[in-house]
Queue: 4 jobs
Job 1
Amino acid sequence: MKKANTIMDLAFKVVVAANLIVVNYTFFTAYAKLKNTLNLFQSEMALQMEQRLTEEFQYFTKDLEAMKGNLLDSQKQLIPAPAKVKSGPPILF
């Protein structure tokens, strides 16, 4: 009778240990898949953000270059022309 109890105790311990191993493996696999999915999502978001920032940088650069070329043309009216005095004594400083 004692031997049967020992075998039953051992079988119970093996079943419990196997169950814990299966549960741990299942949760670890689910965690690894979730982690990989989130990393993939994060890398996709980072790539999209990088592409968007690159496009915006190119747009701003192009806009600033166009503005730089037009800046002097648009400001020419505000820049005073050198004055030429046609009458009066010359200033000899």
Note: The helical segments are 2-75.
Job 2
Amino acid sequence: MSVLFARNIPVDVIPEDPYDSDIDPSEDRGTADEIEMFLDSWPELAQRFRILKKIGEGTFSSVYKAIDLKHDEHDNSTWVKQAGVNRNKTDVVHVALKRIYETSSANRIMSEIKMLADLTGSDCVVPIITAERKGDQVVIVLPYFEHQDFRDYFTSCKVDDIRCYMRQLFTALKALHEHGIMHRDIKPSNFMYNFITRRGMLTDFGLAQFQQRNVATRLVEAAKVQSSKTSKKPAATSFMENVEFGTSAKIPKNETRPSKKANRAGTRGFRAPEVLFKSQCQTTAIDVWSCGVTLLCFFTHCFPFFESNDDANAVVELACIFGTNKMEEVARLHNVTWQSNLPKLKKESIGFKALCELVTGDGLFTRQIPPEGYDLLERCLELDPAKRITAKDALNHPFIRN
């Protein structure tokens, strides 16, 4: 067993009585067997942590809530305060064990650990406690953060509650983006928010990447070039080549140009237009877009807001809000052709205030949202990533600052 990211040197080793806790009886037999097999394969881990239950699962990992049996044998000062852990010597300390599957690449794992280490001390970002490997198994140990399910409170939030949530989320993003990190999977389930304490913690860096240098500059230059063009000729590459659009959109026939390849990682419904259009110039602005989608869920009391199963229909969903004129324009910005032949799609944008009133069907709540709230929503969901508001500027926006 090797330590990939060590805790501080142990201090004042204090003997600790064994805990009576066992696997949560509410777990199904299959999950309980999975936990037992996992611990049997890693006896050293079983001596240090008592897993209670599975609290999350993704394509590349599972996350378990556990008791840290050896907490007092280590100096945890680097993360306890950041995680907001308050305890007496007799209290148990819960942690989250992120078990990364063997199918995940070594580079991806090391990148995630490095990012978490670089972000140590950052507000609203989950700190790393330690990371260890045994054979092809890797576990990242993180603080367990008490939180509520987004679905349990998002429809009952008042404007000030929404403001506080978004302030915490933008605080986390500001830290990431100052380190040149794109999270790539911003969504409510990756932001552990405690509605009682009004504190949030950004988690799950499994898809995160360091932004390539000069990408933002190239994006701005591309926007300048596009704005100077008056021609409506097809761009160099078609959008979603070889995909059947049915009646939603059309692609020039006999398309022979090569398809585009770009990172499309993220969760459906939260991916920015530049991701859907397979732009190779993706920046930290993709995270701000996802924040905008979250804000839209708050304002409309609708979650998830976007529900398409593929990129083609995801673009059509955006066209329902922004209009076909703007979608064709943003497509050209990313060197892509997009055209719609859906007769019910409007050419012009509906406007976010009107959209929120339409979706809620009741102006009682939407009238409580101040104009600056809709302004922030519009600036987060700016189709052009070069013009989209940054996390730093969002924290100074009147809606957040007030």
Note: The radius of gyration is 23 Å.
Job 3
Amino acid sequence: MEFCGGGDLMGMLRQRDLLTDSEARFYMSELACAIHHVHELGFVHRDLKPDNILIAIDGHIRLCDFGLAKSFQSVNDQNLGNWQKYVATLREEDFEQLDKEDDENGVEKGHLDRKRLFSTVGTPDYMAIEVLYQKGYDKMVDWWSMGVIMFECLVGFAPFHAKDPLATCRKIVRYEKYFKLPSDAKISKQAMDLMKRLVCPAQRRIGIDQIQKHPWFK
């Protein structure tokens, strides 16, 4: 494996908290190309997150950790199975409890918890909604993950993070309610538009061709 002396995107976010719009654009353009290359090879990564985006000495990114890639097996599949079973049994009162916790903590609390949240083992924060629902899914799940990572780069925390993985699953299931900006976020309309085109139902989600043509990358 190539040595990546620049660390990873998570380390950069830990130090910086946020990236500028131009910095995020650079890394997301590279991430889009890397994801597309994985797809061209016939694989779906399924576990994209800042930890798995390495930064080489030359400043370009490298993807790593293909343990959940389709056609591979991983002990992490046990976590995935547990989350899927949980989502299948969700009731309306489960969401009411989540709303109560959010009202008490506030969206901005994500900034306060950020250093503690990094490198969380077995987190579904970046997982696409169709994976949790055990529906047939394909390479489009990776574009959802890119949208969540982009949000984290520009806002400072993952949009669906909660106190535990099951609460995160509940937020993903109701993503339309929880994919929102904190009051102090300064994000361009183009950036938010792209994220909404990635974090959405699979049938509406854009792929590499539309991503590369999106105004945010101009």
Note: The two ends are 33 Å apart (CA to CA).
Job 4
Amino acid sequence: MSGEYELSSANMQMAIITALENANATCPDNQSFVPQSILWQRIAEPEGGPVLEGDEKERMYRCFLAALVGKKNSVALFESIEDPETSEIRWRLRPQTPESAAMYLSKGDKPLVRQEEPPQQIEELQKTLVSLRRQANKLESDNHQYAMIIDRIKRTASPEVRKNFEFFESLYSFIEQFDHSMSDIEKHVKAIGKKIDKLEIDI
């Protein structure tokens, strides 16, 4: 694990969704627009999390912008307005409708669902997909945070502690390789068993 581990675009979208939901937690309609600067601050400086700096922060900011406007499903997830006086851009989660659900479930120019499907079915499928993606992306986001924290600990730790980290990583690698070897052995044993069964049938 290293500091070069980056959030994927999908994972960043999940982080943005969570930040918008948290920002609007006290609003009755949960649909207030959040200034982009505040939204970015919530992403880059999570409470209790590591503070990003330099190139690492710049890479994450590019990923942040790409997740908002650069992905095929960005328009289905996020809605923006521009303040005419300050030119400040504000964001919120796009209200979920059959139309936005169809956008979310599309790939390129071809929808993944038939247009004649009932709106209720589209909404249910969309909610299921969002829920599954949230769960998967949250795990990846947590792993990202843990990786950054561990990497920072390793950088500031004493040589003895770093040596313990290296030993743990080598041991973990050995366990993974051993697990793969055992899986291969199990496959071979099953294959031999099938051959023996076939011979007994032929006899």
Note: Residues 1-6, 103-117 have pLDDT under 50 and may be disordered.
